[in-house]
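User: I'm putting together notes for a lab meeting next week and I want to include a structural view of one of the chains we've been expressing. I don't have a solved structure, so I'd like a prediction I can at least talk through. The sequence is below, exactly as it appears in our construct file.
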Amino acid sequence: MNPTWLLLIPLLPGLSAALLALFGSRLPYNAIGAIASASVAGSLGLVLAFCGAGVFGAGQPIDFEAGPWIATQAFQAGLHLHLDSLSLCMCLLVSFFGFLITVYSVGYMRHDKEQGRFFASLNLFVASMLTLVLADNLVLIFLGWEGVGLCSYLLIGHYWEQEDVPLAAFRAFFVNRIGDVLFLLGVFTLFSLFGTVSLSELALHGPGLAGIHTGQAALGALLLLGGAFAKSAQAPLHVWLADAMAGPTPVSALIHAATMVTAGVYLLARLDWLYAVSPEARLIICLCGLVTLILGALMALAQTDIKKILAYSTLSNLALMFLALAAGSAGAGLMHLFGHACFKALLFLAAGSVIVAAHHEQDVRKLTGVLKKLPVTNAAFLVGCIGGAGLIPYLAAGFFSKEAVLESLSEAEFSGFGIAFSGRVVFWIVTAVELLSVVYLFRLYGYLRSDTAAGAAVAGAAGPDAHGSKAHDSHADHGHGGPIKEKSPAILAVLGILILVAFAFGIVSASHGFGGHGDVWRLITGGAAEPEGVKPDAHTFIMLGINIVLAIACFAAFSSSKRRAGVQGIVKNFRLGSFGPLSRKFYFDDVYALAIIAPLKGAAYLSRLVLENIFTGVLTMGGWLGRGFSLGLRRFQTGKAHQYAVAVLMAVFLLVFWLGGK
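Assistant: Thanks for the context. Below is the predicted structure for the 662-residue chain, given as structure tokens.
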């Protein structure tokens, strides 16, 4: 195929975004939805066309170069798009899920007040992510990186009129700016060492130089790691992810399944050779990944907002991807990225269907029994929960990808900064924590399938969420009251397609050891052989049995109002009141408030004192002096000619006397 067509993949949704931003307010809603969907469908069609161009596996990459983009005497970054097996897989992921979520949004946002702005931001989001995954140099990646950051701010803050929503959008923007500064410093560090920012050239010549200049290479790796941690919400830069639920549910699905939070994983996978020569960086990834994994799982257990449960689930799954990267298996991390996209998109969009049907209620305690009235959504939720918990091989989208991550950890060794430990330790910690994913997912499903009928708040007007405020998506409410039912054909069609996709991924992701062909592994790693260790053993089947029993027990406990009351009492005691670790989000917000916000407020206060007391005082004193001088001068302005004549004569006399004395 003509390499020029590569440029159209991100350009089509980008042009649509510009069109909708300029003229969206004047277009009818169906036209807005059609333009937004058609542009992403066009990108998907181009990606599918490139699938037959022999790029997959170890095939020949396709490059598009439009000459220098930024060029100085010492620095050059070209407009260079590179399509290899991994970037093609990522383009397929972004465009496919981007298209389905855009179509879903047509049904979900039908009654929103600012539809043109929403779809323009959504298209720009997809265009930015496609630019990021196709870019061949770190500067062009940074352009896409900033694009998804900007769009996340716009989309998280879409309901800007609601209380706390602007603050949530700003928080996501601010935390990601911290990561962006570190990212840029990392780019400069790598350029100073290697003399290029091209990923192709770095992969070709970088490993040798990095092995010689290990200190500078480690510094660059750590700085880039800061950018990846912010974008992919790893501790301690994870605090923005739950706040991102302030945006519309389709945005949550897009951010969590196919775009923003996967960008950091993709970047580190592209630079895996750099982290191979920096064990200290891999140790930091491992430790932060473990903290994020545990924090996400525990926080998901304590949430009552349906979207925040899924948000913390994303946090935990992202940690699995980073742990695989820390173990030196980019293939396992990327494989779980794809599996996670399949079941997380399904879960978020099924949650959106519940929210729409229940008049934009998000508190699971008020959504009991809702899924009994939503058959398609119920099937989607169940498939998503099975996939997220990795319960049934070949049917669960996350089973084989989680197995690949666990296998990579079992064979790894971690060392650095005088610390060393076996990956088996991490393996058992992850295995234990992953049991919690079964608990929080089937706790959620049990609530939604409870024997208790939906409460009055659901059957009537939208009620307050767990924090006492109106549900975030109520800005787009269809109206108040009415029966609980599945309302939009677009939503149901997308959920049906995603159910099939989740099953399909569960089958094609099967490893050789489980009787599969290892197709997904070969595609995302450029034809590399699948590790021999990914095969069934006694441990696999024991843990599988425990997970299934635990899932059934959790569902039974939370689907019954009587049994649920007892379990809720235990959970409430575990929260330890309003100052307990779960209630305070493990004190990360408190630490940020003390370490960052308090100093900034102090600096602002001192600045105000300086401005108000010193600068204002100087200006006030200048005014007083000017006023006094004018008052004094005014006394000499009498308007009497003889007084002026006497004054002139005296001045002349004094001047003559002074000159005569010299």
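A couple of points you could mention at the meeting. The longest strand covers residues 62-71. DSSP finds 24 helices and four strands in the chain.

User: Perfect, that's what I needed.
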